[in-house]
């Protein structure tokens, strides 16, 4: 009897070490893990305007966690204009106007 319980416990514990994710592809080979890289190619994500800091004539901007000065680049976008409440980014001949507290992003 004790041997049966020991075997049952060992069998149950061995199943506990196997992890199956609901997001896992059921048709993938056993042990195969998808890479973390995204296969989608296209335009880099538009940086998020977080802050504008002006000290006299010199202004710096925080875009997606990076401090950027006029002419600086983030994710392929160039900071071309800074005002007290908005910035202009350019990339590939297009311009994006980002306002600090606006809900809309304008494209030219």
Radius of gyration: 26 Å
Arithmetic mean pLDDT: 78
Strand runs, count: 8
Termini distance?
79 Å
* Proportion of residues in helical segments: 10-25%
Q: In sequence order, what are the helices and strands, one letter per element?
A: HEEEEEEEE
> How much of the residues is beta strand, in percent?
35-45%
Largest sheet: 5 strands, antiparallel
How many helices? The count is 1
Look at the helices and sheets and give the structural class: mainly beta
Widest beta sheet: strand line-up:
4-5-6-7-8
State the shape: elongated
Low-confidence stretches: none
Summarize the structure.
Residues 1-22 form the signal peptide. By secondary structure, the protein is mainly β.
Describe this structure in words.
The chain has one helix spanning 2-16, and strands spanning 49-55, 58-63, 66-69, 73-74, 77-82, 86-91, 94-99, 106-107. By secondary structure, the chain is mainly beta. The chain has a domain at 49-107. Strands 4-5-6-7-8 form a five-stranded antiparallel beta sheet, with no helix packed on it. A three-stranded antiparallel beta sheet has the order 1-2-3, with no helix packed on it. A hairpin with a 2-residue loop joins strand 6 and strand 7 (94-99). It is elongated and about 85 Å long. The N and C termini lie far apart (79 Å).
